[in-house]
Known about the structure:
Blueprint: E1 3-9, H1 16-24, E2 31-37, H2 44-54, E3 58-62, H3 69-82, E4 87-90, H4 102-107, E5 114-118, H5 131-148, E6 160-163, H6 164-169, H7 182-192, E7 197-201, H8 217-234
Parallel strand pairs: 1-2, 1-4, 2-3, 5-7
Antiparallel strand pairs: 4-6, 5-6
Helix pairs in contact: 5-8, 7-8
This protein binds guanosine-5'-triphosphate and magnesium ion (MG).
Guanosine-5'-triphosphate (GTP) binds next to strand 1, strand 2 and helix 3.
Amino acid sequence: MKTIVMIPTYNESENIAKLIQAIKQLPIKNLHVLVTDDNSPDETWKIVEKLSKKDKTIHLLRRMENKGRGLAGIAGFKEALQLGADAIIEMDADYSHHPKYIPKLLEALHDGDMALGSRFVKGGSDGDRPLWRQFVTFGANMYIKLFLGVKVKDCNSGYRCYKRKVLETINLDTMIAKGPDIVQEILYKVHLKKFKIVEVPISFEERKEGKSKLGMKHLFKGYTMVLKLKFLHLVGKL
Length: 238
Ligand SMILES: Nc1nc2c(ncn2[C@@H]2O[C@H](COP(=O)(O)OP(=O)(O)OP(=O)(O)O)[C@@H](O)[C@H]2O)c(=O)[nH]1
Ligand SMILES: [Mg+2]
């Protein structure tokens, strides 16, 4: 089985080499890393390019136009399918998503089609985030569950693992979101296709190196996307 860990990056030069090294040390056979970088000004792509020349299991997708977390993710998924992945993991580069959970996420694919790194199931935690941020996340989860009818506890987690057939089925060519609201769109489409989603407990950690690109404002964009998705579904366009 070929597994590809897809990491979207923008200015992650302080994190990426260490993260790739940690992933490569995991005891998993046929494990590849694909970094989807939007031509970062801090030259994250150059670090990955150098590593990829020495190790054939490290891949770089350097995107020169249409920057965005969502678009980069879609391009990365397509590339991973092209490279022949049987399982695809997506994770952030800033160590909020610790690589030690990768084996558990992969194992969870025995029970489901998509595995979600979850802060809100037993054994998981939301790090030492301020209380108000935890409250906002809690509210966002309630809202998404109510509107979209998804049953999971951590709808906004971007630490995910998919079976190949899931990404083949949800039609990556028709995605609406260009930014981080892609997380909600994919979750809803996976739910509508009736794939089984399982949650794996993770401890979320705050970013230690580099700057935040998305932060709070993307959460509000996510709210609008949820309404849009629900509307499109009601009028039969989704
Ligand atoms: N390719 C690409 N990756 C991006 C873009 N924006 C963010 N990313 C990456 O997406 C991941 C999540 O971004 P973060 O800035 O950590 O967003 P966040 O986790 O919501 O914010 P923090 O909690 O402050 O870290 C990181 O790996 C980023 O480098 C983008 O426009 N293009
Ligand atoms: Mg982050």
